[in-house]
Structure formats: C-alpha cells, structure tokens
Amino acid sequence: MAKQSAGIMLYRLSAGEIEVLLVHPGGPFWAKRDDGAWSIPKGEFEPHEEALHAARREFAEEVGRPAPDGALISLGQAKQPGGKVIHAWALQADFDVTGFHSNTFSMEWPPKSGRQQQFPEADKAVWFALPVARQKVVPGQLPFLDRLPV
After folding, report:
1. What pLDDT does residue 65 have?
2. In sequence order, which residues have a C-beta less than 8 Å from that of residue 14 and are 6 or more positions away?
3. 44: closest CA among 5, 80, 8?
4. pLDDT for 29
5. Among 69, 95, 125, 128, which is most exposed with the fewest C-beta within 10 angstroms?
6. What pLDDT digit, counting tens, does each position of 71-125 carry?
7. How much is the pLDDT for 110?
8. Exposure letters 82-103 (e unless 16+ CB within 10 A, then b)
9. DSSP β-ladder status, 122-129 and 73-79
C-alpha cells in the first residue's frame, strides 16, 4: 500500500486577494530550494489512523499551534510522483505565523559521518498570494490550489 499523508491548507482573503499558508521543509536537502519546494502543513499517517485526525496533528507539529477552529472542506486526494497519496482539507482562517516553530527530526549529517543532527520539519511558514503559491508549492500539490472553494 502506498504511503499516505494528510494536511490542512489555510487560506484567507487579504486586500481582496486569496492567500494560502505554506511551509518550507527543513533540513539540508531543502535548504537552498525555494520554487517548487513549499508544501501545505502535512505528514504521514498509518492505515489504521483517520486522515483528518492526522491532518490536525501534523498541522500542529509543523507550525507549532493547532489549526484554527472552522469548517474544514475536503480538497480530496492527490497522488504524488513518488506514489504517496496526500489527503487535504481547506480551512478559511487567518493565522498569525509570528512565533512559528516546528517539531524536529534527526538524521545523519553530513552523509556517512556517523553524526546525528536535529533539523526542523519545516523551517518557515509564509502566506503567499495564490499566483505566487503556484510557483512555490511542490508540483504534486498544485491540484489542491485548483480545488480551493473560492
């Protein structure tokens, strides 16, 4: 069975323009990547776990606070080039990213050094206008931007 992830895409209207909240993945692999590297706050879940529960958990882990209250709208699923399936929900809400902080993960770095280092799961959270978000988001998540209920 393919791995699965779940996430929540916040969106808002700002000066009459739609903006979405995206996070930039942490760690050395993504450090110098920008366009095509950002993501909705999301993470993997196990087959026995409810996708929406995982989406809420992963949002809190990646941005440091729970998602705001409000009506979640399913954006469906999108299969990524590597085979992973992402389940996503949209939520119209404003969210202050001041004080953003993410959980960390450990990996061997530099490679084959035998040293484990800690890196944030996400190193930035930014509101982007929809046209800019289309440039920033990983290509496999573009369908979620197209499905926003606006």
Report:
1. 94
2. 127, 129
3. 5
4. 85
5. 69
6. 999 999 999 999 999 999 999 999 999 888 898 889 898 899 999 999 989 999 9
7. 87
8. eeeebbbbbbbeebeeeebebe
9. unpaired
Q: How far apart are CA 1 and CA 19, in angstroms?
A: 34
pLDDT given at position 104: 86
Count of residues making up the chain: 150
Distance CA 90, CA 147 (A): 9
The predicted structure's pLDDT at residue 76: 98
Please state the pTM of the whole predicted model: 0.93
In the block, tokens 């776990």 appear at 49
The CB-based long-range contact list for 25-33 (8 Å cut-off, 24+ gap) reads: 25/121, 25/122, 25/123, 26/102, 26/104, 26/105, 26/119, 26/120, 26/121, 26/122, 26/123, 27/105, 27/107, 27/119, 27/120, 28/109, 28/119, 30/123
**Phi, psi dihedrals of residue 138, rounded to the nearest 5°:** -60, 140
